[in-house]
Fold:
Amino acid sequence: MTAVIHASDLTKIFGKSTAVDHISFDVREGEIFGFLGPNGAGKTTTTRMLTGVIPPDAGTAMILGYNIRSEPVLAKQEFGVVPETSNAYTDLTAWQNLMLMGELYGLPRARAERRSSDLLGMVGLLERKDQKVQAYSKGMKQRLILAMALIHEPGLLFLDEPTSGLDVQSTQMILSLLRDLNTQGTTIFLTTHNMEEANRLCHRVGIIRGGKMVAIDAPEKLKTAIDRVHKIEVSFDHEVSADALAGLDGVIDANRSGDKWQITAENRDAAIRSLVTFSRQNGASIVTLNTLAPSLDEAFLRLTQEVQS
Ligand SMILES: Nc1ncnc2c1ncn2[C@@H]1O[C@H](COP(=O)(O)OP(=O)(O)OP(=O)(O)O)[C@@H](O)[C@H]1O
Ligand SMILES: [Mg+2]
Structure:
């Protein structure tokens, strides 16, 4: 598989503090890669180094085989950026912003116009194209910035917290646009601190904390890696004893919480089978049964705390 982004030993030092500390990773062609971390972890600094906004103090970033430092013009043709802070001019209209972006990438006027119409249609702003951006809502502005990042039809898109501060509707719209773009083949590097968003959208996530990469894997794998014991929540229509439950095959422990039992299981499948057998043998019907997967939030907290200690 081709590496679309290849970061090797990337490092940034501000004064006495190391904002990004020798991180290395690859982003593969066609994937949505989530770059997660708490505030101040180094996400934006990394994104800026990858996109050639600031130079690294050590290490290299390659974009589709081009070195972002020594071949910035070639590398920059390959990607679009939705930066952390808006890069749209508020005293210009959406259309003017797109034309300006087109010029920046050296697009012929006719192509820029065709592309802008398509993109404005895609982000639902065609009717507002001649309005100045200062009259736009936050969600509209963010959709315009996404359109601007796509003017030159890049195969790779960087987004730095694109849904931060947006309402549910605007967030959903942006995420569904990203999903569509990805389906059409665009590789996406998405910086976020929203675990749920990463969990739903990303093929793989990299977790950064204190400038260091602490884990890279598929969200599901990160979740299971941190929690090898499984939780099952079950309730019965009759009283049952804790000892009886705790003694079942595959069950480590049983604790009552309200009208439900929280079962800690070594082997989820075996535990569920023995719960079913138990209910049949004891004439106590199962009212509810849920398996509780660890959340990415839990995985994230666990991973980022391990580094602290
Ligand atoms: N230009 C700068 N000068 C000095 N320090 C900086 C500069 N930019 C970033 N930093 C520091 O580097 C660290 C990483 O910052 P960065 O903005 O990359 O974090 P982040 O993960 O994007 O955080 P957030 O979630 O808040 O956007 C922080 O401690 C920050 O204060
Ligand atoms: Mg940031």
In short: The pocket of magnesium ion (ligand 2) is lined by residues 43-44, 84, 160 (CB under 6 Å).
